[in-house]
Specification:
Length: 651
C-alpha cells in the first residue's frame, strides 16, 4: 500500500547546542587539563576529549564543567545513564548553572522523562531568562505533549532573543506544517535557510512542505539542492525518491537508478559480507515472520496489514511485530493480541534492533514502509534475518541489496521490464497483493447522489501531491464534457488557504467555474470520512501516482473508480485493484480513454445505480476481502522464499 497521504519523516530536531565552558575555581593543573580537553572537543577530536575529561574527573570527580562536557559526549552516543550521573554531579557542585540544567533537561527528554525534563528547563530559564536555547528546548517538550500554543510561544521567545536561530525557525515551521498551515511553514523554512544555508533540516522540511502543497517540481529541486550539501542524509534522499513518483516528467529508468544510488550510498556499506545466520535450515519447519512498521495503529497501513497478521496459519508461522513509533491506540492493542512477540523499536538503534531480531530467531523479516515516514531501512541493511522482504508501504524498489524480495502481482508489475527496474526479486501473488479491512463498517447508500442532486459529482480523496497539473487538465476536460457536473477534492492539505486557492485557480484557468469545485479538508472521524463518499458518484484515480487506500474506500462505499493504467507499479495499482474486483471496464489505457470512460459512466445513470447497489457484494466476493485466501497466498510465497534460501545457504 502506498502511503501517499502521510508525511515522510522530517529530519530530527536537534536539541540546542550545549555551552560547555565557563572556568570555575580549582587547581591550576585540573583547569589546564580541562582546557586541553575542551580544545580537543571543539576540534571534533571526541575520543581524545573524552579521555581528557575523564582524567580531570579522576582528580576532581565533581568538576562541573568536565562532568557537563563528558555528559555531552556520552549523550550523543547513547550512554544515557552515565551521562545522567555526570549531570547530577555537576549540579551538586554548581546548582545555579543554567547551561547544565538545560543540557540535563535535554538528556531527560531523550530518556522519555518529559516531566523532569520540563522542570530542568524551566529552572534554566529562571536562572537565565534570556537563554534562547532553553526556551527552544522547553518548546520541544511542550510540542511533544501536544501543547501547540505553549510550544509556539516558546519558539517565538527563542526567536525574539535570537532572530536567526535556524533550529527554532525549523521547529516553528514544523509546528505550522503539522497544523496544515503550509504557507506559513514554508516561510519559516525559507527563513531558516537564510539564517543557516547548511541546515539539513530546513532543506528537508521545505521540500516536504512544497510536496504537500502539490508543488512537486519545486520540491524535487529543493531536495536535490539539499543533497548537494548533505549527500549522506539518508532521510532527505528517501524523501526525494518518493517525490519523484508524483510527476510524469521523470522516466522510470531514472527513478530506478536513483533508488539504486540510495542503496549504494546509505545501506550497501552496512551489509555484512557473508554473514552467517543460525536459523535451522529445515525447509518445511514452522517459520518465524517479523513485520517492521511505524504504523501498527489506526493508520491506512494497518487496514491492509492486520488482515494478514490475523489470518496467518499459526501452525506454520509464528508472527512477531516490531513497532517503530510511539503512537499507540486500540488498533495497536488488537495487533498486540495477534502477535506471538511484540517489540517496540522506539529509541532502539539499528545495531541493538538487529541483535533483538536475531535473538528472536526471525526467519523472514518484512518491511512495511519503504522510503516513507518512520522507516527502518538501515536496520534491514544489517541483514538481521536470512530472508528479507518489502511489501505494502511503498510503490517501488527500495534499491537495497539487503532486501531479497518484493511482493506484488502481475498487473502492477508485469514480467519483464518491472524485473529490470527492481533490485529485489519480485514475487507476484496470483490474486493481488492487497487485503483490505475498513476501519469501521459503514453501509453505503442505496443510490448514487446524482439521483437526488440532478447532477454528477466526481471526486478524489487523494493527497494533493498526486493532483498534478496534468491531472487538473484531464479532470477539467471531464468536467467540461459533463455539463453541470461538480468535483470534490478532499485532503488534509486543503486545510491550507493558499493551497486551496491555488488549486481552485488551476481549474479556473482551464475554464471551470470556481463554484463547481469543492475543496474539503481532513475529516478526522473514520465514519465521517467514509460517509463523505456518499457525496460522490464517480471517483477519479490520479496519475501517475494512483490511490490505494482511497480506491479501496471508494469501492467499499459503493463508488466506482475510474483509473488509467501506466507503465510502472505506481501507476498500475489502480488497475490491479479494479481487476481483482472484476471492474476491468473502468481501466483505461491512456488519457483519452480515461476521459471517455468517466464521461460515459456519468451519462449512464442506470449503470451507476447498479454499481452502487452491487459494489459491496462484489467486494465481499473479491480476493480483496478474502483474508484467509490472501494469507495462504502470502504464506506460500514465504515458503518459496525460505526454501530458496535453505537451498542456497551453507552452515
Amino acid at each position: 500500500m502506498k502511503k501517499s497521504s502521510r508525511k515522510p519523516t522530517k529530519a530530527k530536531r536537534p536539541a540546542a547546542p550545549a555551552l560547555p565552558v565557563r572556568p570555575v575555581p580549582g587547581a591550576a593543573s585540573a583547569e589546564a587539563a580541562f582546557g586541553q580537553a575542551l580544545t580537543l572537543h571543539r576540534a571534533g577530536r571526541t575520543a581524545e576529549a573524552e579521555a581528557g575529561y575523564r582524567a580531570v574527573l579522576t582528580a576532581d570527580p565533581g568538576h562541573p564543567n568536565a562532568n557537563n562536557n563528558l555528559a555531552i559526549i556520552l549523550r550523543a552516543r547513547g550512554d544515557w545513564e552515565e551521562a545522567l550521573g555526570c549531570y547530577r554531579r555537576a549540579l551538586t557542585r554548581n546548582a545555579t548553572d543554567p547551561f547544565v540544567h538545560s543540557n540535563h533537561g535535554c538528556l531527560l527528554l531523550d530518556m522519555g522523562r518529559a516531566a523532569e525534563a520540563e522542570a530542568a528547563l524551566r529552572t534554566a530559564i529562571t536562572l537565565k531568562p534570556d537563554y534562547a536555547e532553553a526556551h527552544f528546548n522547553l518548546a520541544n517538550i511542550l510540542r511533544n505533549r501536544g501543547d501547540r500554543d505553549g510550544a509556539k510561544a516558546g519558539y517565538g521567545e527563542a526567536l525574539r532573543l535570537k532572530p536567526n536561530m535556524a533550529e527554532a525557525l525549523c521547529n516553528l515551521g514544523d509546528l505550522h506544517k503539522g497544523a496544515v498551515e503550509l504557507s506559513r511553514a514554508g516561510e519559516c523554512f525559507v527563513a531558516a535557510l537564510k539564517a543557516n544555508p547548511a541546515s539539513a533540516e530546513a532543506w528537508n522540511n521545505l521540500g516536504e512542505t512544497l510536496k504537500e502543497m502539490g508543488r512537486i517540481e519545486e520540491a524535487i529541486a529543493v531536495f536535490q539542492k539539499g543533497l548537494e550539501a548533505h549527500p549522506n542524509h539518508a532521510l532527505m534522499h528517501s524523501n526525494l525518491l518518493l517525490a519523484l513518483h508524483y510527476t510524469p516528467a521523470v522516466p522510470a529508468e531514472t527513478i530506478f537508478k536513483a533508488h539504486a544510488v540510495w542503496g549504494q550510498r546509505h545501506t550497501d556499506p552496512l551489509l555484512p559480507a557473508g554473514k552467517p545466520h543460525a536459523n535451522p535450515r529445515d525447509p518445511d519447519r514452522r517459520l518465524r515472520v517479523g513485520y517492521v512498521s511505524p504504523d501498527f495503529c489506526a493508520h491506512s497501513v494497518a487496514f491492509f496489514a492486520e488482515p494478514l497478521i490475523r489470518a496467518h496459519d499459526r501452525s506454520g508461522f509464528e508472527v512477531f511485530c516490531y513497532h517503530a513509533a510511539t503512537r499507540t491506540d486500540v488498533v495497536t492493542e488488537r495487533l498486540k493480541g495477534l502477535a506471538s512477540g511484540w517489540r517496540s523499536l522506539v529509541g532502539v538503534d539499528d545495531a541493538r534492533a538487529a541483535a533483538l531480531i536475531e535473538q528472536d530467531g526471525i526467519d523472514i523479516l518484512v518491511d512495511l514502509t519503504g522510503h516513507t515516514a518512520g522507516n527502518r531501512l538501515t536496520l534491514f541493511a544489517r541483514k538481521p534475518a536470512p530472508v528479507q522482504v518489502t511489501w505494502l508501504g511503498y510503490p517501488d524498489t527500495t534499491g537495497m541489496r539487503a532486501i531479497d524480495w518484493r511482493l506484488s502481482d502481475a498487473i502492477a508489475d508485469p514480467e519483464g521490464v518491472a524485473d529490470r527496474l527492481s533490485v529485489e526479486r519480485i514475487v507476484r501473488l496470483p490474486h493481488g497483493f492487497h487485503s483490505y479491512r475498513p476501519p469501521v463498517d459503514v453501509a453505503p447508500p442505496a443510490e448514487p447522489p446524482s439521483r437526488a442532486n440532478g447532477h454528477i459529482t466526481f471526486g478524489s480523496f487523494n493527497n494533493t501531491s498526486k493532483v498534478t497539473a496534468e491531472v487538473v487538465r484531464v479532470w477539467s476536460e471531464i468536467l467540461t464534457r459533463v455539463p453541470g457536473s461538480r468535483l470534490i477534492i478532499k485532503s488534509a492539505q486543503m486545510g491550507d488557504k493558499e493551497t486551496r486557492n491555488r488549486y481552485r485557480n488551476s481549474f479556473v484557468q482551464h475554464g471551470i467555474a470556481a463554484g463547481r469545485i469543492d475543496l474539503l479538508a481532513r475529516i478526522h472521524a473514520a465514519d465521517g470520512h467514509l460517509r463523505a463518499y456518499d457525496r460522490i458518484d464517480i471517483a477519479l484515480d490520479p496519475f501517475p501516482y494512483n490511490g490505494t487506500t482511497t480506491t479501496c474506500e471508494a469501492l467499499w462505499m459503493g463508488v466506482p473508480v475510474v483509473t488509467v493504467a501506466g507503465n510502472t507499479h505506481v501507476s498500475r495499482v489502480g488497475a490491479s485493484l479494479l481487476t481483482h474486483c472484476g471492474l476491468t471496464d473502468l481501466i483505461a489505457a491512456d488519457e483519452a480513454g480515461y476521459i471517455a470512460t468517466a464521461v460515459d459512466l456519468a451519462g449512464d445513470p442506470e449503470r451507476l445505480s447498479a454499481l452502487r447497489r452491487s459494489m459491496r457484494d462484489r467486494l465481499d466476493a473479491a480476493p480483496l476481502t478474502d483474508y484467509q485466501g490472501f494469507a495462504r497466498g502470502v504464506e506460500a510465497a514465504y515458503r518459496t522464499m525460505w526454501r530458496d534460501w535453505t537451498a542456497r545457504s551453507t552452515i
